[in-house]
Specification:
The chain is of the alpha/beta class. The chain has a single domain, classed as 3-Layer(aba) Sandwich (Molybdenum Cofactor Biosythetic Enzyme, Chain A), CATH 3.40.980. The protein is built from seven helices and nine strands, in the order E-E-E-E-H-H-E-H-E-H-E-H-E-E-H-H. The chain has a seven-stranded mixed sheet with strand order 3-5-4-6-9-8-7, with helices on both faces. A two-stranded antiparallel sheet has the order 1-2. Strand 1 and strand 2 form a beta hairpin. Helix 2 runs parallel beside helix 6, helix 3 packs across helix 4 and helix 5 packs across helix 6.
């Protein structure tokens, strides 16, 4: 169950499964995609950021996967509850958030992420800002973070679909091995989209 706008609860909005290869069912990777947006959650405009993340996954990930999507307003308590639900109840191994990472008063996604994570991975935030700075000077305003809850990686992205793609095209190369190290499923990628890096000893044939 994914927390929806306001105090309503709703089932996860979209599930998609890609079943390439013969990987065991227990190696299915469930991705959580959480959009934090007051206006999108109120129906003022369509969420285009969450689908942009899912589109990337459909192009990049070649091992079995499915996605659970959530749309919540910029309320720290609701974001925290939704992140916990995606990890603890939905069993996601990777949760990618979009929106709420700037300096505005209602941008609270980083605070929510830090509150639910047991360990932080500052290298992701540093690299994501470095990537965006090649395109826009306002990337210095981003407060994106990443961290670990249990055996799940939680990663913040900005709200712009263009920025989402620019960042994922580069940082996703580190995601599969990170998931390996924290006890998640083995994720493979299409090297023509993103070439997942693993040291030789961690690679499977």
């Amino acid at each position: 169950m994914c927390i929806a706008s306001g105090l309503r609860a709703a089932a996860a909005f979209i599930h998609r499964t890609s079943c390439q290869g013969a990987m065991a069912a227990d190696q299915m990777c469930r991705f959580g995609v959480l959009t934090a947006s007051d206006r999108a959650s109120a129906g003022d405009y369509e969420d285009i950021s969450g689908p942009a993340i899912e589109q990337f996954l459909s192009e990049a990930v070649t091992s079995p996967w499915e996605v659970v999507r959530c749309l919540v307003p910029d309320e720290q308590g609701l974001i925290e509850a939704s992140l916990k639900d995606l990890v603890d109840s939905e069993g996601c191994s990777v949760v990618v958030t979009t929106g709420g990472t700037g300096p505005a008063p209602r941008d609270v996604t980083p605070e929510a992420t830090e509150a639910v994570c047991e360990r932080m991975l500052p290298g992701f935030g540093e690299q994501m800002r470095a990537i965006s700075l090649r395109h826009v000077p306002t990337a210095v305003l981003s407060r994106q973070v990443a961290g670990i809850r249990g055996s799940c990686l939680i990663l913040n992205l900005p709200g712009s679909p263009r920025s989402i793609r620019e960042i994922l095209d580069e940082v996703f190369a580190a995601v599969p091995y990170c998931v390996d190290l924290i006890g998640g499923p083995y994720i493979t990628t299409d090297p023509s989209v993103v070439d997942a890096f693993r040291p030789p000893h961690a690679r499977r044939e």
